[in-house]
Write the structure tokens for this entry.
Amino acid sequence: MGQILMPPAGPKRVDDARPELSLPIPCRVLLLEDNGMDADLVREHLLLIDDHDFDVHRVDTRQAFVDAITDGGPYDLILSDFDLPDFDGMSALAVARERLPRVPFIFVSGMLGEENAIEALKKGATDYVVKLRMERLQVVVRRALVEARDRNELTDKRQALAESEARLRFALEAGRLGSWELTLATNRLRVSAICAANLGLSDPSELPTYDALLMRVHPDDREHQQAAVRLAVANGSPLDIEYRTIWPDGSLHWVQVRGRAVYDKNGIATGLAGVSLNVTERKKAEDRQLLLLEELNHRVKNTLAMVQSIAKQTLRAAPTPEAFPDAFQSRLRALAQAHDLLTRRQWQGASLSEIAALTLEPHVDAGRVRVGGPPVTLATGVAVSLHLAFHELATNAAKYGALSVEHGRVDLEWEVASAATGDRGALALRWRESGGPPVVPPIRRGFGSRLIERGLVHELEGEVALAFEPAGVQCRLVIPLSSRVSPQ
Amino acid sequence: MTNAPLTDLTVLIVEDEPLIAMSLEDVLVDQGVTCLGPAGSVAAAFVMIDAGGFDIALLDVNLRGERVDAVADRLAAAGIPFVFTTGHGAEGLPDTHRDRPVIAKPFRDQDIIDALARHRPR
């Protein structure tokens, strides 16, 4: 980078650029001359330059000259007298240099002392011709035009190159891409400000060599980094690596580097150049995604194990094989409902009233179930367990209990006893059926009873009393308050 | 398959998911095993280990978001054998206990029976 490609050396002739038998090159001339005869003399001499077709615009006052210059022409050449009644040649030169710096300016004057001539050239005049030797005008004008064309061409190329570099810099900065260049023979490194910033450095000069860079690379990644660089140099394959870097403040960041070997004309690798990008955020996102995938895998496995457990226990408790599918599917649906609710809450838990409503909503709407209590927030595991327990109670009530007859009803109420000395407080929850057929206690405990009496006690570390009272099933839970069961 | 009787065995179940704990109990009780627990948290597991009275433990690797490394350490220090149960695969195991037996969730009943028969104290 930084090398400007020069056009082939040697003066370039105007003729080179012209096709054979082509028309003369048009050339607009601004002529500042107050004397009409002198102006004609200049015109005659210009006519002798046969490969150019001159179009002379003559002005003879300061104002006309300034207007013409301001208007800009465009002119290819300015010819000026040195002494004018209301103007002088040096002032005209100053105006022209300021406004039209690319246009060659030649003095054509009756008298021009050596001192004036030197001063004029210093101030930017291209050349001068004294009127006594007007035949020089042809040579001087032709040379001035050729040189101006070459010079302007070069200026244009430089400007285009500068603009191109500015665009590249803009693109690099917009993309937060750092650029770097390594010279193999000297191990010298040149990096951009962004490239240095990617390594936590404010000054690119802090990375003068490849070794200085390597010191910034995480020790565990250095070997990998060096091997990749060696490979890119050895076989010309693109360099594309990611490595960790430790910033001066001790923080860890990720850098992605892409590059390619640079070769001389004999095909020998002389260096390596490319871009660098801070990919720390992407790496963090990848880590988060990996973590989420692991968590998902864990949850899926756990859910499968729960489904397996529900299947086995439902099968165990089923009085006949025919009773299995409905009981199993109904429990699976209850589990799925709990997952739906928790997903809507981003697995951050759920409220007790939401969980109660999930199972009991249809019965509540029919005026058969009354649900009420203060706001309580449940952790995900508690929410699932309580929901499955309510599902068992409601299913039993609908089959054999209060919800199996028209006038039966269920009250699900809870209250929070706030913390006292030596006691962290508790949630007391009561399920009470009434108006149903007389309850006959089951001969053996089914899945529902077991889930409530064993599972809930285990999950909630609380107390459970499930009673098959003749007047209706009653279930009372006392759950100590904790981060998993908390008043809102 | 080994079907040597396990009737003289007492097993501590460390598992935070009640349904899975109940399922484990079913398997073990059917084999005549005496079950302790289930312990659903690290703290509860500590209490049961300190109380003792069991021969071997089934140990879930994660209890309500908490890793069980400390529980495994305490069992190992007490010289009590244990078998991990996990849905995480071997990567989820505590680093210092990677050579311990593992049963992947969901498990077959026979896997539990075989593991207890193989790793119970002699």
Observations:
- Chain B has one domain: 10-119.
- Chain B is about 35% helix and 25% strand.
- The helical segments of chain B are 18-30, 42-51, 69-77, 109-119.
- Chain B has a mean pLDDT of 90.
